[in-house]
Amino acid sequence: MIDATQAFWLAIIQGLTEFLPISSSAHLILPSALLGWQDQGLAFDVAVHLGSLLAVVSYFRRDMGLIGRSWLQSMQGQRLQTPESRMAWYLIAATLPACIVGLVADQLIETHLRTLGVIAATTLVFGLLLGWADLRHRGDKILENMTLKAALLIGLAQILALIPGTSRSGITITAALALGFERQAAARFSFLLAIPIIALSGGYKALQLLASPAVDWLVLALGTGVSAITAYLCIHWFLRLINRLGMLPFVIYRLLLGLVLILIINGQL
Question: Looking at residue 53, what is its pLDDT?
């Protein structure tokens, strides 16, 4: 099990990279590759993802409350479909593809795709794709312009996030931008979509954890808390600054990160 200092820094990395379009898997490799840290382990992975989930649910608590109430009322026939109840269906539709493929291909991904070479390649390729979507296809659609077709396409793009190094937020924001949504709307839908996918993947990992040996609960609590605080601040500032900054800083960062990973592969770092 990692120690408290390692847990603190890894939780910060997880909290930042879960929602920035820069890939958490690429960053979590760096401490072990450059500093010789041991793998964080399944228990800690569940803990920091719980922190990320707490952050995004807390930040969008009003949106989720309204979406949830409207969806339940429409299901019970108390009111007609509203933009909020339709958004619930859009989030469900966009979540299903990655869940289905993730369950089917979990062992394949774990066995063959968690390599530095794959992560370096996806960091570079999907970084360039993010820049292309932002520069060439970004439009003025807002979240209220979301349709079932657009949600399904974003959900299909989210399947690619199962490949380490892709970035879940990165590929869903890329897809939304390519469909003509503005940056703020693309980011908000991506973050709302994070809630069901993190909850489901975290629950799946937690079931695997039942067969694991005893864990250090203080380290896990530290990881959860630090990840939650970092992720909340990350969401807040990203949404405030995204229209001003654009995607170029993240594209440049991904290209530099990909080059660093290539240097690590070649033994030059």
Answer: 95
Q: How many Cβ atoms sit within 10 Å of the Cβ of residue 2?
A: 20
Residue with the two structure tokens 């890894």: 10
- SS3 call for 163: coil
Identify whether the C-beta of residue 156 lies closer than 8 Å to the C-beta of residue 97: yes
Distance CA 205, CA 215 (A): 15
Q: How far apart are CA 228 and CA 209, in angstroms?
A: 21
Contact 171, 97 (CB under 8 A): no
The pTM (predicted TM-score) of the whole model is 0.93
The length of the chain, given as a count of residues: 269
- Flag residues of the chain having pLDDT under 50: none
CA 9 from centroid of its chain's CA atoms:
18
Cα 266 from Cα 38, distance rounded (Å): 21
Residue type for position 117 = G
Tokens 């289905």 identify what position?
Answer: 100
* DSSP letter string, 32-72: HHHH-PPP-HHHHHHHHHHHHHHHHHHHTHHHHHHHHHHHH
- pLDDT at position 23: 87
Largest CA distance in the chain: 64
